Amino acid sequence: MMSMVDGRAMEAQFEAFRVQLDDSGAVRERLRTVVADLDNVIRMMQASLLPVHHATLQGKEVLDKAKSYIPSLQKIYSQLSEIIRERPGQYYRYHDHWRSQTHTVVFLLAFVHWLDTQGLLSHREVETLLNVKSEEFSIDIEDYLIGLCNVSNELPRYVVNRVTAGDYDCPRQVSAFLSDLFSAFRILNLRNDLLRKRFDGLKYDLKKVEEVLYDVKIRGLMSTQATANPMES
Amino acid sequence: MMSMVDGRAMEAQFEAFRVQLDDSGAVRERLRTVVADLDNVIRMMQASLLPVHHATLQGKEVLDKAKSYIPSLQKIYSQLSEIIRERPGQYYRYHDHWRSQTHTVVFLLAFVHWLDTQGLLSHREVETLLNVKSEEFSIDIEDYLIGLCNVSNELPRYVVNRVTAGDYDCPRQVSAFLSDLFSAFRILNLRNDLLRKRFDGLKYDLKKVEEVLYDVKIRGLMSTQATANPMES
Amino acid sequence: MMSMVDGRAMEAQFEAFRVQLDDSGAVRERLRTVVADLDNVIRMMQASLLPVHHATLQGKEVLDKAKSYIPSLQKIYSQLSEIIRERPGQYYRYHDHWRSQTHTVVFLLAFVHWLDTQGLLSHREVETLLNVKSEEFSIDIEDYLIGLCNVSNELPRYVVNRVTAGDYDCPRQVSAFLSDLFSAFRILNLRNDLLRKRFDGLKYDLKKVEEVLYDVKIRGLMSTQATANPMES
Amino acid sequence: MMSMVDGRAMEAQFEAFRVQLDDSGAVRERLRTVVADLDNVIRMMQASLLPVHHATLQGKEVLDKAKSYIPSLQKIYSQLSEIIRERPGQYYRYHDHWRSQTHTVVFLLAFVHWLDTQGLLSHREVETLLNVKSEEFSIDIEDYLIGLCNVSNELPRYVVNRVTAGDYDCPRQVSAFLSDLFSAFRILNLRNDLLRKRFDGLKYDLKKVEEVLYDVKIRGLMSTQATANPMES
User: Fold this and answer.
1) SS (H, E, C) D40-72
2) N or C: which end of chain A has fewer CB within 10 A?
3) Which family would the database say this protein is a member of (chains A, B, C, D) (predicted)?
């Protein structure tokens, strides 16, 4: 039978655990509050991008509006960083709190960048835009890659809407971009997990865009300039 | 359309990702190999403890056999530590690989300790036995607590078998221990997760042991010496 | 474009495939017919064993009735063997057809054997009873082990019914048998599959039987002869 | 109760099972390692074929690059064969380990062959290319057929991209090939399983290609030479 001394030692130990579990609980509470703000900014930034599917003029205005949320994102990620920096080595302990939101943030930044430049926003550029690169807090590579898959998933709808709006060169641009992205993903040795599953969707996106490109081509709607320019073929 | 320069930059970036993902995959592969060894040692240590439920003599021999596996556990946890130490700050990234096995290891060590001393093996003592306490690799507190829940789950069966074997004082000892453990868990502010669920099981274990204690008492089977000694009540 | 020659070669190849697939389909059809007979015999043999849970006298008669189905089982397994022997190396191609039935057959044979002798029917004895041991057709070890798990699952109910019928020595016999069986399974390095899952159930069966043994002991119902005989302790 | 002799016999039997289960586990471990290599080669070979959808010139170069992986495939299949050859009659016991990868390998080889010759790669030719035909290790016919279904699934996308690139004769070639393939599958008496399900997809692929052919024809884009030559119709 346990002596009373043992009982007190047991209690003392659990009292120490309580402090640590409460501390960890407090971290999670702070993270939840910050991530709730993040959800808000994401929602508004997504809303600001809706017109790209329908505006006749692509509009620097629309992109400027979307980019105007970047400082808010920076502020929120700096709050996340600060919380995690106080707990060295525990980034992955709390990663789940901001993981899915980060997928969407990467999507938003990379989609805006693509609309702006038709190029790929690099992982380093995401970290620069969010101002997060440090020893203790960075953007996980797999989160970045899933964000890119989200961009891919958005593009077929975008292409369909652009063509409807009379922009017949869009399918060629998107098809080239997705084809490059698809090839790049092929470099990776993906294990059978979430990322692999998301990658499998890329092929479907590419195929869909190629079908739109086909429709445009077969009807002779593509600009002759585009097909004639050997630098772009 | 992406320029060729962009296409190459994309490829270079993904090539770098490939290296990092492959590196992380190699870590997981190494962890899996070590954890397979851990599974083996756990299995043998569990087998060595089976006689405690049936041996007429409790047997220092049985406990010595069980303890003889501790050096093997130390070796395996030192291998885990070594792999993780090479990746500062990524303990929780790979934690899932050894989590469930660690629950069982804590159970085995704490059960052996209880059989030996009727006392609780502390978190610090678990780390000392496994020789793991360091900045980079320690036993997560929640894993330790779940291991204790496993001890609790084992005790009703143990009590039933001890009484069957004629050891009528065992229920009182176990009931006192579980009652203390239950009180100690009550100190914690458990969230609605695995640990809370496991804690809910403790109450059932305690109730079951108390029923055995009742059966023994009501039939006048408990030793009068034991009930008469106020120091042990 | 394919030439006509190619079209004909394609057709010739598929014609050959048709023959092979039809042949394999015919094998499956024959197996299905034989396994339907097996289902019938299993059902009758199971029915013949129902009285063991309730008969006051265990009854050589009941066991003899159950054993009377063994020749039918032999006949059916010899038909299975014959079909598979015609297809060297394809035992595991068609294994699924008789797998689950074989679990039950092993259960029935091993349960009858236990009722008869309180001992374990070995894998070799199963093959001898079914008259199947050959190069091309044998009883898969995992199927045998799952059959034993089924025996374990049956024993708690059996013990409860025997005690109800006034046989107070039964729990001790069964507890000893299950405890040995549980220890024996611990020797195996089970992977995380069906067999491992079934093994996890053994512990529950053992615990249940131990509780019945406890009930009998605490009420002083066990025969003193049994507890006094050191050869059986 | 079991005698001690029985307990020891039980243990001896399970010790023998342990050896056999461990041996089978070791086989699976070796297969997993080899199949991980296979995944890598498949990934690279798939990447090498991506340009066929977009290159203006079909490019012997692209096909040569793809074919350059065949020796690696041969090496890996010879390793699989070697492992299985040590276990006569157990090909189908372990078949699941390489089944899905073999579907993709057949797809890759047959697609390259079609790009090269517009003809169908036969089952025998697959085995010759992989250098596997032996008593103990061959390519399962159903795996070959599923690989062909994968070729069919790839062709609509290929046709769409070829037409977009201005190759208006491609739809007719592909339509003829798929039509022959569809007829050939019709010869088979498919059961209600994976293969039947995949075959159902063929019809959709053929329909899609025929629609492209229609689009091209209705717009007068097909070369008159092609339609005029009766040898190719």
Assistant:
1) HHHHHHHHHHHHHHCCCCCCHHHHHHHHCCHHH
2) C
3) Belongs to the translin family.
Nearest of B162, B211, B174 to residue B53 by alpha carbon: B162
pLDDT at B90: 92
pLDDT computed for residue C221 by the predictor = 85
Angle value at C-alpha A162, between A157 and A163, nearest 5 degrees:
100
Task: Answer yes or no: is the ipTM higher than 0.95.
Answer: no
Q: Which residues of C touch B43 (CB under 8 A)?
A: 186, 189
Q: What are the tens digits of pLDDT across the range B33-71? A: 999 999 999 999 999 999 998 765 557 899 999 999 999
Q: What is the DSSP letter of D95?
A: T
pLDDT in tens, A188-233: 998 868 899 999 999 999 999 999 999 999 998 876 544 433 333 3
* Separation of alpha carbons B217 and B210, rounded Å: 10
Query: What is the interface size between C and D, counted as CB pairs within 8 Å?
Result: 130
Give whole-number Cα distances, A224 to A126, A162, A232, in Å.
Answer: 36, 18, 12
Using CA atoms, how far apart are residues A230 and A222, in angstroms rounded to an integer? Answer: 15
- Other CB atoms within a 10 A radius of the CB of residue D192 amount to 7
pLDDT, tens digit (0-9, with 9 covering 90-100), for A134-168: 878 999 999 999 999 999 999 999 999 999 988 99
What's the burial of C57, exposed, middle or buried (CB within 10 Å: 0-12/13-18/19+)? exposed
Kindly list the residues from chain C whose CB atom is less than 8 angstroms away from the CB atom of residue B221: 218
Find chain C residues with C-beta within 8 A of B219's C-beta. Answer: 218-219
Chain centroid to Cα D210, Å, comes to 24
Query: pLDDT tens digits, residue range D158-170?
Result: 999 999 999 999 9
**Cα(C117)–Cα(D18) distance, integer angstroms:** 25
- For chain D, give the percent of residues with pLDDT over 70: 91
What mean pLDDT do residues C104-130 have?
A: 96
- How much is the mean pLDDT over chain D? 90
Q: Give the residue ranges of chain B where pLDDT is below 50.
A: 1-2, 226-233
Burial of C203 (0-12, 13-18, 19+ CB in 10 A): middle
Return the structure tokens found at A152.
């891919």
Q: Chain D partners of C118 at a C-beta cutoff of 8 Å?
A: 1-2
Contact D89 C89 (CB under 8 A): yes
Chains B and A physically touch (3 or more Cβ atom pairs below 8 Å): yes
Amino acid C200 reads D
Q: What percent of chain A has pLDDT over 70?
A: 91
SS3 B150: helix
C-alpha distances (whole Å) from C61 to each of B178, C64, C157, C159 are 49, 5, 21, 20
Task: Name residue, tokens 């041991």.
Answer: C133
Span D201-217, average pLDDT: 95
CA–CA separation, B46 vs B111, rounded Å? 11
A155, two tokens: 């593009």
- Residues B53, C179: C-beta atoms closer than 8 Å: yes
B14 CA: distance to closest CA in chain A (Å): 6
DSSP state of B50: G
Q: Is A184's pLDDT higher than 50?
A: yes
pLDDT band at A129 (very low <50, low <70, confident <90, very high): very high
Contact: C13, D122; criterion CB under 8 Å: yes
Dihedral over Cα of C232, C233, D1, D3: its sign? negative
Domains by residue range for chain C, with CATH: 1-138 (1.20.58.190), 140-233 (1.20.58.200)
Q: Which residues contact C62 (CB under 8 A, 6 or more apart)?
A: C48, C49, C51, C52, C55
